[in-house]
Amino acid sequence: MDSVETEKEILRGLGDAVIAYDEEKTVELAKMALEKGIDPSDAILKGLAVGMEEVGRLYEKQEYFVPELLLCADAMNAALDVLKPHIKLETQSKPFSVVIGTVEGDIHEIGKNLVRIMYEAAGWTVYDLGADVKIPRFLEEQKRTGADVVAISSLMTMSMLAIPEVIKPIKAYDPGITVMVGGAPLTREMAMAYGADGFALNCGTAVKETLEALGRVKGRP
Amino acid sequence: MTEDWSLRPDRMTPTERMKALLSGKPVDRVGLYPFARGFCAINTGMSPETFYEDPAASLDAQLWTQKMYGHDEPLKFGGACYGAWEFGGEIRMPTSEWQQAPSVARHPVQSEADVERLELPDVTKAGTIPRTMEFGKLQHATGLVCTVAMGSPFMIAGNICGVEKLTRWMLKKPALAHRVLRLATDFGVAVAKYWVDTFGPENVEIRDSAPTDSNQVISPKHFRDFPLPYLIALHEKVLAMGVKYIYTHICGEQNLNLPFWHEVPFGDPGIASFGHEVDVAKAIEMLGDKCIVVGNVEPRILQTGSPQEVYQRSRECIEKGKHAPRGFILGTGCELPPRSPAANLFAMKKAINDFGWYE
């Protein structure tokens, strides 16, 4: 097998091992990638991230559920721990950054964590504020980090009422910040009425929806 | 909507209606289960914290709301964090204006070693149970059915160790998941026994709800292999104590789990309430032969929709459910959002008035 074929095999293997939530295999292949001189950024973006994209699709199709997705993320993260120290600083490119959290009054963060995982898998820089995040904290963190996106999650009907209170000061401060909203009790229509730029019902479509929202916001005059 | 806004006078009290439904006898009209919790607090000008901490105040708020809207649902105490405080963790009362109900502040199990150390608490003293028992005694003194709402074994287990940990263990360390589930089941059985011993089985209603059992969290295969055997064991043991029926809220998206839910005993009949994600017709097809079906106006519509929307959605539910073999009760798909406009609850009542009578 020539080196190009070997590289393809390893990258495909990384993706497959993520899908199979095989942590030992992702670590083994990550080490092998380094030994074979594969660019660690390629191992991440063309291997692990491709696997996580498929995991997102499987989740949307109800073939994978929360436990599978969590373990896929564990497998990805174990390989990232191997690969990240070897990425040269000048080649580190982060496509976008996002501040994410579950809104005040709501401790439910499984959905938010799954969305965080999908952002991370796509190579984004994620600033995770956790759950029950006080309303002003979202904007404070965006100001501190300069993040492109603020993503707000809610599971409860009561706490979802706090979402427009989060969005108003963000948009007043800078309408160019893209705001995403997600969570089981919400709809796209409500997210838009709250002043958000985009909506994702779950993690399966979160990255795609956010990219589209970013396009809409940046495309504004 | 009809031009006539007057409501027909009931021919049965809520107690008579529920007794008739549970014994397979005719009722005057479709009943109403609004799943009203924090709504009762706001309705009576009470803080949610008081509502969830003070049994007498909670009973008072629920009674006033029940009399105001004439609904049929038994009153109940407590939130959805059963297991957390009782097994040694902490819960937090709703103090933020955005917090709907008590929530888990610290799970009692943080590590695998904690699972080995975990023991069944003394249910007469643990966590919120003494207050729930106080509530039960007030119910008993008022001639009401004594309810205890505790959660499915899977929900209790999730409150003990956190849902993410529990679901990871299901796949990677199933023995740990089973140990927590077994303890959660034993806890449920012990609580039920405490109520039966105190009030007698004929005066007790056991209520559980199963939000984390949903397909928004786990697959139907994992539902079959993990929560289901424990649900069956819990319900069998409760029914063996002489309790006539169990009320279960099959919360959220559970369509793929429905064939398995049919294996769970609920009493004859039991009461099964469904999230709005399960169509009422489907719910009746799957469980209508053994349960009174309750369902299922979407909470979001109750909170943000107009009375006309709620009325229309209620009408659809009633028309699908009214002739369910073991009976039908119009309900909300989950807790009535505390800040729902009062007219939206009235819209459910009005829909029953206009479409829910049996002659």
Overview of the structural elements:
The complex is a heterodimer of chains A (221) and B (359). Chain A is α/β, with parallel strands linked by helices and 221 residues long. Chain A is built from nine helices and five strands, in the order ααααβαβαβαβαβα. Chain A is elongated and about 55 Å long. With 359 residues, chain B is an alpha/beta fold. Chain B has a domain at 74-267: TIM Barrel, CATH 3.20.20. Helices cover 47% and strands 12% of the residues of chain B. Chain B has a seven-stranded parallel sheet, with helices on both faces. In chain B, strands 2-3 form a two-stranded antiparallel ribbon. The longest helix of chain B is centred in the middle third of the chain and has 26 residues, at 174-199. Classes of the chains: A alpha/beta (221), B alpha/beta (359). The interface between A and B is medium-sized, with 29 and 32 residues.
